[in-house]
Each structure stands twice: as structure tokens, then as C-alpha cells.
Amino acid sequence: MAIKALLKERFQLTDPDISRYIETAIECEDFDSFDHFYNELGPIFESLEQQQKKPPEEIVSSAKSLWTKSRELQRTALNGTSPDALVVQDDDEGSGDDTTISKSFKGNLDLRPQRLIQPITIATEFEKSTLKDTSSIFLNSQVDKTMRVDRKRLEKAEAKLKSKQERREAIAAGLQLAGPKKTYEPVSASTTQQVSKRDVKNETTKVRDIKLENFDISFGDRVLLYGADMTLVYGRRYGLCGRNGYGKSTLLRMISTRQLIIPKNITILHVEQEVAGDDTTVIDSLLQTDEIRYKLIVRERELSAQKGEMNEKDLKELADVHAKLQELEADSEPARASGILYGLGFTQAMQQRPTKEYSGGWRMRIALARALFAQPDLLLLDEPTNMLDFKANLWLRDYLTTKWESTLLVVSHDREFLNSVPTDILHLHSQRLDAYKGNYELFMRTKAEKIRNQIKEYEAQQQLRQHTQDFIDRFRFNAKRAALVQSKIKMLEKLPVIKAVEKETPVVFRFPDPSAISGTLFQLDDVSFRYTPDGPLILKNVNISASLESRICIVGDNGSGKTTLLKIITGENEPTSGEKRGKSSAIIGYFSQHHVDQLPMDMNPVQCLARRFPGKSLEVYRSSLGKFGITGDLALQSIETLSGGQKSRVAFASMIMTNPHMLILDEPTNHLDVESIEALADALIKFKGAVVLVSHDEQFIKSVCQELWYVDSGCVTCLKEGFDEYVKLVKDALEKMH
């Protein structure tokens, strides 16, 4: 009543609605200062006083009087000194029924905060309750079920946390390293997919486009893709890009195994595993992929072997076989198969050798050649350039861009390959797939522009939201602007939600600085090498050297002796003749292209380093792994479950544990994604020691290396014009092949 009287006295307020609004605001809001009070109610006071043409100073003075009076009434009510303050008035006028607190009760009432004698267990009290309102919608069974703790899940979560803690403690104490090896259950990928009637219909037609809609892929308990869509138009070439561990290889496997449903009329080949070695010659291994032709040739040989014993029926069958072979143009197939093999580095003599005589890298080339020869509707390639030298790489680029007619989906880290081959780029990130037209360079420009536009759009909407919210907060209690405030609130509710741009964490690698050392790290004088006393010379009369500032790349065809040269530098191979000199105190870090395969798959990265370099603290192992992005739980995850790029990072971390003066890297970019290759190049440029590497990645070589050593026919030549001179030599060799 006091507030109402003051409003009537100071502001001549007679409107009961506005009076009730102000009273309610004062009663419900906890104003901590006069500024807060005036910001909320000032606009109403100003509109009332302006009607009476009073100066602003008098408006503020009247508002301050109201603020002071409201504070006094609040203090009086809390202290319990005024019986009138504890009277609750009935809203219905004329009822005359006031509820008051008796004087005897008022005298015993203490409204100050009190400490409970004993704690109250709310759950226990709730169970004892016999109130009839337990059937209320606020206490219904659905809410009760949601709030109830699932004991089994809780126990499982606690057991998992306990196991993780014990594992970490065991690693720190070195206990796991002495025990028996633990066998890990293989983690498998799974998928779900929405299939439309159109997809089923396409199976009975000759449509060779592929449209996958609303599919999910997970690996163990980790979601790789969620609600993704992918369209592969027949005849187009798609490059699949994304960070290591994001699920590129898993997606290819889901397609090739048809766990993602694809029309049965579409043939698919996935070059993933090497060809099994047996007595079949390399050329026949390709020809056998054309099953119809191969069966006809086998039957022709069987019939021709009968010679004079053929009857009329056999003669007719032989004539039919010849007709079908002619229709298939079977005579041209051996030449086509031979051309593919030759482009991938197989000479005529090599094509006639059994597949069992070749190493895993060469058998992977045979698998690639078989896929190219078979010409499936959809060819899936996962890092095809890993097993190729630069000459074969250039040939494959040319073949896929000029002669490949069906659909191609390829994963590659080679930027030049991605700029040459794909017509489209599929970018896998944030559990989704985004499609871009054009090659990798155009994709990077378009993606950067898209991100800039998204940031601008997001920031503009955030400003609009903030400005609108400020208006709503300012005039929330202004009766004259109530309608406008409501329209602003509705506008905010209808605004589309623009998510903040998800920026990928930059990839950073770091090599530790070596200790001080001066002079030449190694020098080879007239060095020659052969594996056996009567074997051929692999290297002859090699004269090379390197200092702490050297940045050297060794290039050449596969089998030319590049890896052999690296092993001589590391000391793994001793020269057959000539002299090798160097600093005995120089420490060498060696990354072999086979180191990734030699990691202990049943251990995690921390355990791997602890086994190879025992006696160091957990922080040292963690620090080394952290320099290559193996952090957090990833460092405690079994190596078996890591992607190829993540395994390479573990191998890098192992290599730097000795703080080397010189890094010798054999194909270090294999398995790494584009961002990781760029991070590796940047780290090698900043490294204060020597770098000697073997690579066929053009961008990587140009970024890092200052010298280029070309190995050919056992000789090592320094190319003064660098990589451009090497490209010219390779292209000249390819033209001679044609």
C-alpha cells in the first residue's frame, strides 16, 4: 500500500494496471543499486513525468524517493518490526478478509538465517512422503525414470575410470612392460544408411551413378560420419581429403565391402592389399582379371591340344571360341596389359617373372595394374603413390586423366597428384562430407572463401542478436513498448541458427635442437657397394658429404639404390670399397619406410617408447609424443587402432628420443595427410641439424631441400638445377617409353 500511495503522490499515477506492474517489478526484482532500478523502470517514470511536463531532475528525484522507500520497506519486513509489513492483502476488493500474524507468534518469530541441527536427506524424505500430489505431472513416472541413476551404467563407468587410472599408474611404474603381451580385440567399423526406392530401382537398370544418402559410420565407439550424403557421378574423378584418423580409409572399405548399400549392377575394385605371390607370371596375373577372355583362351588351348582327335562337335566349339575372342578383341589385351605394367615400372623381362619373386611394394604395383586393366565401374585407390617412384607417379597421373573412363575415388596426400587427377574434391571433416568442384588448389581457395563468408555471416547475426537482446532488456518493463518488445522476442526466436565456424586445430611438429657440433657430419670417398662378393655393384664411386646445415633429397627410380645409400650413411651397411668418414659423436635419427610396420601393435605409444628407451619418466615419453600431436588419451590408445599417419607420428617421436644431430628419412610423407606433410616440412626447415631424405613428393622436396642427389645406374649425381632438372629427366624417359 505504501508503494501505491507513493506512486500516487509523486507521479500522480491513477492507472491501476501500470501501478500494479511497477509494484510487482519492485517486489519481484532484486535491484542491487539505484542505477539498476532506474535502468529497468526509468522509461516508465519518464513517460509519466513528460505528460506533466516536469524537468528531468525532478523525475530522477521522484524515482530515487521511490527506490529509497522500497528499500526501507524491505528492511522493515525482514527485521520483523512492523506488523503491517506481515499482512497479506487479498487481491479481491471488498472481501475484507485480512490474514495477519498473531502478536504472540510475532514476538517469537526469528527471521534470521538458522543452522540446521542435522542435515536433511531429501531423497529419504521424498520416499517417506504420503502427499496426494505425487501423481502430479511434475512428479510423473517418466521424469522419475529419467532422474533415477542407472546403477549398472554407473558401475561400468566407475570400473572404466578405475582401469584407466591403474593403467596410467602401471605405465608410470613400468609394470606393464615386464608382463605378458596383451591381446587386443580388433575394433571394427559399422554403418547405418537410409535406402530409397530409387536406389533399389537403379539395380535393375544400367544407371552407374552412385548416390548415398543420410548414412553414418562409426569405428568402435567413435563416430566418423553422421548423416552424411555422397554422390559419385559416373566418369568423374573424386579426391577424398581429410585429416589422419578422420575415416577416409574406413569410408573406402565400407564402399568396397558394400556395407554401404550400392546397386548390385555397379562393379567395384579397391586396391588395398598386395597380390599373393605364386607361380603366376605378372602379365598373366593381369590377363586373368578378364574372366570371360581367360576362360575362352583356356578352352581354346584345351581344344587345340587334341589336334587330330577333334570331332565335328569340337571343331564347331573351337570356331565359336575363336569368334567370341575376336569379338572381344582378345588379341589386343596382352598389349594393353603390358603397357600398364611398363608404365608402372615393369620391364618386359620383369613381366614374365612369377609374382612370388617380388617384394610387397612391387606386388602392390601389380594389384594396382590389375585394377586398371579390369576397368571396374568404380575404382577405389588409397594412397596409390606410396608404392610408386616419381616416374611411375607421373605415368599414373597421365593415365588416369587421359584414359580412365569410369568413376574414380582416390585418397592421396600428394598435392601435385590431387591437382592433376581429380575433377572434384570430397572434404571429410567434423563428421560430414562437403563436395567441391575442381582440383585441390581450387578446393583450398573455395574453402577459404567459404570460411570467410561463414565468419562474416555468423558475426553479423551475433551482433543483430546482441543488439535486439539489449533493446528487449532495456524496454522489458515499458508498457508503451510492450508490443514492440514482444515482436523483437519473436524475431529472435525465428532467426535461423548459424553455428560458429569450426576451425580445425593447426598441425604442428617440432624436432628438438641438437647439441653443439661442428664440421662435416659424414663424408663418402669413392665408395662402392655390393651385397655379395660376386653380386652386381649397387653403388659405385660415390663422393658425397653433409654438414649440420645440409638439406639433401635423394631421388631416383625404385631399386636404383637410394635406400642402400641411406644404410651406408647410417652405418647399417659397410662400403665394399672406398672410405666413409664422419664425426663419431654425431647422433643419427633414422626413419625407415618400414618403421611404421615394425611398431608393437599390442602396445600404446607411451609403452612403445618406454620399451625402446627404458628408465625415463612418463613426462619425457609424453613430451616426445606431444611434439607430433600424440597427446591425451591418444597416447594411451593401442597402436593397432591408430591410423597410418598417427603411426608415423609415433615413429617420429621414437626417432627424436636420442636428440639427433642428423635426421635420415626414407619416404617420411607416406601415410601423412596434406596438413601433416606441411607441418613436417615446416619442422624440418626450423630444425637446427642436418636433413637427408628420400621422397617423391614434389611440393615437400621443393619446400625443404637445398640439394638434390640423383641415383641412376649406381652413380650419384648432384643436380645443380634442383627438382626441375629431375622432372625434365623423368619426362624425357617417359617419352622414350611411348
UniProtKB/TrEMBL annotation:
Name of this protein: ATP-binding cassette sub-family F member 3
Matching Pfam families? ABC_tran (PF00005), ABC_tran_Xtn (PF12848)
Family matches, as InterPro entries: AAA+_ATPase (IPR003593), ABC_tran_Xtn (IPR032781), ABC_transporter-like_ATP-bd (IPR003439), ABC_transporter-like_CS (IPR017871), ABCF (IPR050611), P-loop_NTPase (IPR027417)
Segments forming a coiled coil: 147-174
One GO MF term: ATP binding
PANTHER family reported for this sequence: ATP-BINDING CASSETTE SUB-FAMILY F MEMBER 3, ATP-BINDING TRANSPORT PROTEIN-RELATED
Q: Which domain of life is it from?
A: Eukaryota
Keyword vocabulary terms for this entry: ATP-binding, Coiled coil, Nucleotide-binding, Repeat
What the record says about family reads: Belongs to the ABC transporter superfamily. ABCF family. EF3 subfamily.
Q: Organism source for this protein? A: Aceria tosichella
Keyword Nucleotide-binding appears in the UniProt entry: yes
Classification via SUPFAM superfamilies? P-loop containing nucleoside triphosphate hydrolases
Q: Taking every annotated instance into account, which residue ranges of this chain make up the domain ABC transporter?
A: 210-455, 522-738
Q: Does the keyword Repeat apply?
A: yes
Q: Entry's SMART domains?
A: AAA
The record's CDD domains line, in alphabetical order, gives: ABCF_EF-3 (cd03221)
Source taxonomy: Eukaryota, Metazoa, Ecdysozoa, Arthropoda, Chelicerata
